[in-house]
Amino acid sequence: MIHCKRVYEPASSEDGYRVLVDRLWPRGMKKTDLQYDEWNKNLAPSTELRKAFHADLIDFTAFREAYLQELAGHAPEGRQLVAKGNVTLLYATKHTTQNHAEVLAEWLRSLP
């Protein structure tokens, strides 16, 4: 099972394997305060794509499509993550429905 959760929410025993999927460390979060098993920057959107989306140069639909294209080259890494079983993708953005972690979760669930 793949779940998404903001890094600012408390950890839970139901989270399973916790993976930070942001390219940048979350603002205001001390490294000692975040409970996570892995920081996977490779599965985060590229810097260029992230900046374009946050600057409103592209909408979420365009961001999603471009991000899925980036992820296509990371299928082996994605399968390794899915193999861990219960996985929670940690992200920092305030928007809880239109963010890269939700796109990543959708992509991971679709992997054969």
Gist of the model:
The chain has 112 residues and is an alpha/beta fold. The protein has helices at 47-54, 60-71, 75-82, 100-110; strands spanning 2-6, 17-20, 38-39, 87-91.
Secondary-structure content class = alpha/beta
- Rounded mean pLDDT is 96
Strand content: 5-15%
Low-confidence stretches: none
| SS elements, strand count | 4
Shape type: globular
Distance between the termini: 14 Å
Q: Tally the helices.
A: 4
Radius of gyration of CA atoms, rounded to a whole number: 13 Å
The portion of residues assigned to helices is: 25-40%
Order of helices and strands: EEEHHHEH
- Report the sheet with the most strands, covering strand number, pairing sense and barrel closure: 4 strands, parallel
User: Order of strands side by side in the largest beta sheet?
Assistant: 1-4-2-3
Structure description:
By secondary structure, the chain is of the alpha/beta class. The mean pLDDT is 96. The chain is 35% helix and 14% strand. The chain is built from four helices and four strands; from the N terminus they run E-E-E-H-H-H-E-H. The two termini are 14 Å apart. The radius of gyration is 13 Å and the shape is globular. A four-stranded parallel β-sheet has the order 1-4-2-3, covered by helices on one side.
